[in-house]
Amino acid sequence: MVRGIKLVVFGRQGSGKGTQCSRLAAYYVVPHISTGDMLRSLLGSKLTTASWLFEKVNRFVQAGELVPDDVIVEMVADRLTKDDAHNRGFVLDGFPRTVSQAEALSKLLTFSDVDLAVELNVPEKEVLNRLLMRRVCTKCGENYTVTTPPKVDWTCDICAGDVVQRPDDTADIIKKRITLYNTQTLPLVQWYKDRGCFISVNGMGNLDVVTQRLIKAINDNRTRRSLVSETEVSETR
Ligand code: AMP
């Protein structure tokens, strides 16, 4: 187990990013911060349903569009000030999703920027299928895949919450979200490459294999970068 890291993870919807992020967070002993989960819990909260914030967020999430930066950046800024993230780091899942959000994150992290941005790479054709088959627990967020024959009144094995199709996992909205990923999020590859902290990891294969692949790629990159910075220090002596 390795303690402490500041990781940004992005990947197409349905790439398995949520599951892998929670595994990475457990491995590096840092909080898993998912903006999608934060928004869903905000929308599900009784306190929010009557508020201006609900109005401001709900229509974007339902339509599979990006929530305005002012809301999302403030939400993340607030979360990053909490002790766990402030002291140990984080795995950020679903943020940043655009170059302007990456710039905002950089400004928030005044002392040192993210250690690494990781793209979990799964081809578009594969994620389309996975999303159409995806069902989620409304209570704990656990993911399931549709069975044949389909289950009726499906409840979660972990918490007995209702297992349903996410309202934004319908064919039309999935297509819109994937197009948004290609146009708005993929430019982050170059943005983080330019800052020398980007890796792409193949997200195809079974969950455990992908987790091991991610951890190895992240740790190898950290070792390489710390060796480079040691060399730079000794060259300046
Ligand atoms: P996700 O669970 O990551 O697929 O996010 C679900 C929805 O939440 C997205 O389709 C957006 O409407 C919204 N969302 C999540 N993260 C962000 C973000 N960083 N910027 C804008 N909208 C977001």
Please render the helix and strand layout as text.
Layout: E1 5-11, H1 17-28, E2 32-34, H2 35-44, H3 52-63, H4 69-80, H5 83-88, E3 89-93, H6 99-108, E4 116-121, H7 124-133, E5 134-137, E6 143-145, E7 163-164, H8 171-185, H9 187-194, E8 198-202, H10 207-236
Parallel strand pairs: 1-3, 1-4, 2-3, 4-8
Antiparallel strand pairs: 5-6, 5-7
Helix pairs in contact: 1-10, 2-3, 4-6, 7-8
Adenosine monophosphate is lined by residues 13, 35-36, 39, 60-61, 64-67, 72, 94-95, 97, 101, 168, 177.
Give a brief description:
This protein has 237 residues and is α/β, with parallel strands linked by helices. It has helices at 17-28, 35-44, 52-63, 69-80, 83-88, 99-108, 124-133, 171-185, 187-194, 207-236; strands at residues 5-11, 32-34, 89-93, 116-121, 134-137, 143-145, 163-164, 198-202.
Question: Structural class of the helices, strands and pairings?
Answer: alpha/beta
Terminal Cα span: 33 Å
Biggest β-sheet, characterized? 5 strands, parallel
Oligomer: single chain
Strand order of the largest sheet: 2-3-1-4-8
Taken from the alpha-carbon principal axes, the silhouette is globular
Extract low-pLDDT stretches: none
Order of helices and strands: EHEHHHHEHEHEEEHHEH
**How many beta strands in the DSSP annotation?**
8
Strand content: 5-15%
The residue fraction in helices comes out at 40-55%
